[in-house]
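Homework help board

Subject: predicted structure for assignment chain

Our instructor gave us this sequence and asked us to write out the predicted structure in token form, then describe one feature. I got the tokens but I'm not sure how to describe them. Can anyone check?
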Amino acid sequence: MPDLDDRHWLRQAIELSRSCPPSSSAFCVGAIIVSPGGEILATGYSRETDPHDHAEEVALAKLPVDDPRLREATIYTSLEPCSKRASRPRTCTELILNAGIPRVVLAWREPTIFVNCEGVELLTAAGVEVIEFPDLAKEVEEINAHVLG
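My token output:
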């Protein structure tokens, strides 16, 4: 059942990305942090509280840094977590690693429109299990048509 659960939560993250205020210079991304038992620990979407917010960053900011539930959680994100960032000192990849989240599930790898993202590679190299559902990427691309041209 993990595949069905992963798809369920990833679809919820994709749906959450539709809440993002529009921006011509940033992707619309949704993120949900879920416990192994299926409890939503936190959600976030790009630009939720600030024009420079990233979805994973917002979701993680809603929990204490040392929340022990993070060490068993999965973060579902519609787009690959960023590995380079100009607007903040820490990338979403760094924030996920520092939180100790062992699983990341995503739909779409970030295209090289703004930066050359290496989130998947960095997370995998650090021992994080990364699961991709590229068949769900088309919907994320459609939501982000505003930056794709």
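Reply (TA_rk): Your tokens look well-formed. For the description, you could write something like this. Residues 2-17 form the longest helix (16 residues). That's the kind of observation they're looking for.
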